[in-house]
């Protein structure tokens, strides 16, 4: 049986109920994922197609979500461009050995051939799509140019993003050169993912919200729009998720994406009034609500469904990724609540 609810909702076509999936749904909250990670390090998992396919499909089998997202990491893209990536297991996450600091270093970065330097991801997509056998659609993803640039310039996660902000305010031409190169790289990467079997793609702009609204448009949204213009979609819907960017919902929808992802700080009723006539919406339960008992989770689900109202164009999700210590039964209760409570809004 083919479940295409997610794809239909992305296109704002009629659905029998609201589809649901969870950002970071393949991950540490699942014992089955932890069992695999106990045997291999993170990057090996990302770069081994059969293992990446296995953990990608786990949430479909265990949680019952309506879409599968390929397991990977956004930072494999800068690695393919020539940066040395390290992942410190439990010691602060990923980092780059030599962060970008000069125009010469920006110019040195390659625009990789995704079917060569990132072929392991394309192999994982093809294998996952084959194993899924159309049970649910498969999503590919990438970090936005701005979010990738912040890691490349800072070298790792940051609290105040001093180096990246110094770059945009002191040397904006260099920042634009880096972001343009990243936009072309991300567009080629996502196009290759679609060719390899991804039926939708999502751009994660995790750090768009660290910018004031005008700078967000100049240094982040401009390059997301460039990615979407260069993308060979082949009919695949596009989702743009910008965290902490509720000030720019309309501008995000105007990039030409099919779906605007909402974090939990945005009222979905207001967002639908602003852009619901030309973009679908994804979101947006507070991820920490999954710590609550199942009956409270159901109340939270009902409130968001009620706010969105009747009709299609809504993909239910959390307002950011699922947290690693969420009980599996609570994740299941969340998905089940969406499936049961949303039917009345589609009659």
Spell out the key features of this protein:
single chain; 347 residues; alpha/beta; TIM Barrel; seven-stranded parallel beta sheet; 15 helices; 46% helix; globular
What's the helix and strand layout?
Blueprint: H1 5-10, H2 31-37, H3 42-46, H4 49-62, E1 68-69, H5 76-80, E2 85-88, E3 93-96, H6 103-108, H7 119-132, E4 138-143, H8 145-154, H9 162-170, H10 172-196, E5 200-205, H11 213-230, E6 238-242, H12 249-253, E7 259-261, H13 268-275, E8 280-282, H14 294-308, E9 314-315, H15 328-341
Parallel strand pairs: 1-4, 4-5, 5-6, 6-7, 7-8, 8-9
Antiparallel strand pairs: 2-3
Helix pairs in contact: 4-7, 8-10, 9-10, 10-11, 14-15
> Total helix count?
15
Could you give the count of β-strands?
Answer: 9
The rounded distance between the terminal residues' Cα atoms is: 22 Å
Q: Characterize the main sheet.
A: 7 strands, parallel
If classified by CATH, what would the architecture be?
Alpha-Beta Barrel
CATH topology: the name is: TIM Barrel
Q: Which strands sit side by side, in order, in the main sheet?
A: 1-4-5-6-7-8-9
**Number of domain units:** 1
User: What fraction strand?
Assistant: 5-15%
Flag low-confidence runs: none
Estimate the helix proportion, in percent.
40-55%
In angstroms, what is the radius of gyration? 19 Å
